[in-house]
Amino acid sequence: MLLSTKNILGTKELTKQDIQQILDTADSFKEISTRAIKKVPTLRGKTIINLFFEPSTRTRTSFEIAGKRLSADVINISGSTSSTVKGENLIDTARNLEAMNPDILVVRHQCSGAPALLSQFVDCPIINGGDGSHEHPSQALLDLLTIRSQKGDLEGLKVAIVGDISHSRVARSNIKAMQTMGMKVCVVGPPPLIPPEFESLGVEVSHNLREAVKDVDVVMVLRIQLERQNQGLLSSLREYSNYFCLTSESLAKARDDVLIIHPGPVNRGVEIALDVMESPRSLILNQVTSGVAIRMALFYLLLGENNANPN
Amino acid sequence: MNSILLNAKDISRAINRISHEILERNNGAGNIALVGIRTRGVALSHRLKEKIEGIESVTVDHGILDITLYRDDLAEGIQKPELKKTEISFALENKHIILCDDVLFTGRTIRAAIDALMDFGRPSSVQLAVLIDRGHRELPIRPDYVGKNIPTPKSKRVQVLLNEEDGEDKVMIQEQTK
Predict the structure, then answer these.
(1) CB B34 within 8 A of CB B100
(2) Which value does ipTM take for this structure?
(3) CA distance B132 to A310
(4) What kind and span of H or E run contains A187?
(5) What CATH number should be reported for the domain whose range is A11-135+290-308?
(6) Is the peptide bond before A265 cis (omega within 30 degrees of 0)?
(7) Kind of pairing between the strands at B125-133 and B61-65
(8) Do B85 and A28 touch (CB under 8 A)?
């Protein structure tokens, strides 16, 4: 067995060994994207379906490129062009897709738990491409790969996650994965955006950005999700920026070698200042490159396991 | 039921001879590059590189191939070996590539290695150096340089141990373990 799980629904289900294996495999895949011919024949004849019910540039393209670099056939279906607009429900859509024998289904959905629900109805492996405010495992894995390639080792590193923790699947996936890898996590943001249950996850909670970044190795800035800010949790974006926008000033007490990451898309000037984003400490574009390698590794390892255990 | 086919001295002599054969056939080391196939082909290619550089007093390009992604048995339920990096940092154009592997058997690994190599460019030629040729080819592939031809029953296993990987140099033949 290569991975302990058939589906990638969340980082919660991944063991330390799983994560290590995914990161090591992804490391080897990085080189393929630098070749003149960026393609290997490994998954020739396999079909991957990207089923995206939420808008996405990075994640969908990244999964698509990853599949294509391994020679798989990749089909993209977005919510607005699928039969769901005619009233078909999610499970029926997935079962119909499965009847066409795909080898992997990548699912993004606005409802937490949608990929887990589907995994009970279809046989092929499912990768969660982000579900509601629940999990976004491939993002957490690519964040770990980006950090590891700079720091060498993950064990013992301290990370501050800044922003709208409450709505963030990226934060949830990262907290679990980072804890599994022996890292320390501090979440930073205004009290309405940090639900009380986070303290029970074993993370530090801070409401002061300048102090929180003081001795961390990595600052992860989250996007303020404009589309999810209609509940009156923030009085205004400007007020949020005053306290929590990552600027060179708010980084004054941080270490010189602190790494800055952001899952994208970025609202420039809201959660992160332009100069910080473009500084050499910022790894935002490295994250995107790591993303392709991570998704290649997930396809490779999942299809491997699938092959090793024919029903 | 293990018997030793080659000892450390035999291996070293074979590598010496192959180095000279490579130089003779390619008129020196000017346009050659050595590429080792993971895992034990890498050790072999390093030794050939060292020998050839010693003889000719030049530097020879060197690369490493991991052919895992090019295998034809991935879909057959065989447990995948761990994927390692491929490192080819020079241009293959106008180079004679000497592929190096420890044992030549069915020829499927070499087929995969040639496919992998072609994705990096168009070498002038590809030649094959192996320490052991044990026969039983399943593809039309033949080696250019051979340490030792050892006709073997298909049921047996030929095991090459090299210092870099295993802490000692020897070639053994044994019963299949499973």
Answers:
(1) yes
(2) 0.80
(3) 35
(4) strand A184-188
(5) 3.40.50.1370
(6) yes
(7) unpaired
(8) yes
Domain A137-287: CATH superfamily, name plus number:
Aspartate/ornithine carbamoyltransferase (3.40.50.1370)
Which fold is adopted by the domain B8-74+82-152? Answer: Rossmann fold (3.40.50)
Q: In a mutagenesis test of the A interface, which of B74, B86, B88, B115 is the best target, namely the one with the most A β-carbons within 10 Å?
A: B74
Please tell me the distance from the alpha carbon of residue B128 to that of residue B124, in angstroms, as a whole number: 14
CA distance A302 to A62: 17
Whole-angstrom distance, CA of residue A243 vs CA of residue A162? 11
> Does residue A34 belong to the interface with chain B, where contact is any CB pair within 8 Å?
no
- The angle formed by the CA atoms of residues A295, B121 and B53, to the nearest 5 degrees, is 110
Question: What is the three-class DSSP state of B7?
Answer: coil
User: Out of B66, B70, B120, whose CB is closest to A35?
Assistant: B120
Write the CA distances from A155 to A44, A93, A284, B61, B75, integer angstroms.
Answer: 37, 42, 22, 37, 35
Each residue's pLDDT tens digit in chain A (311 positions)?
478 999 999 999 999 999 999 999 999 999 999 998 899 999 999 999 999 999 888 999 999 999 999 999 999 998 877 777 777 889 999 999 999 999 999 999 999 999 999 999 999 999 999 999 999 999 999 999 999 999 999 999 999 999 999 999 999 999 999 999 999 999 999 999 998 888 888 899 999 999 999 999 999 999 998 777 777 788 888 899 999 999 999 999 999 999 999 998 999 999 999 999 999 999 999 999 999 999 999 999 998 644 443 33
What residues in B contact A40, CB-CB < 8 Å?
69-70, 116, 119
Task: Give me the count of residues in chain B.
Answer: 178
- Where do the CATH 3.40.50.1370 domains begin and end in chain A? 11-135+290-308, 137-287
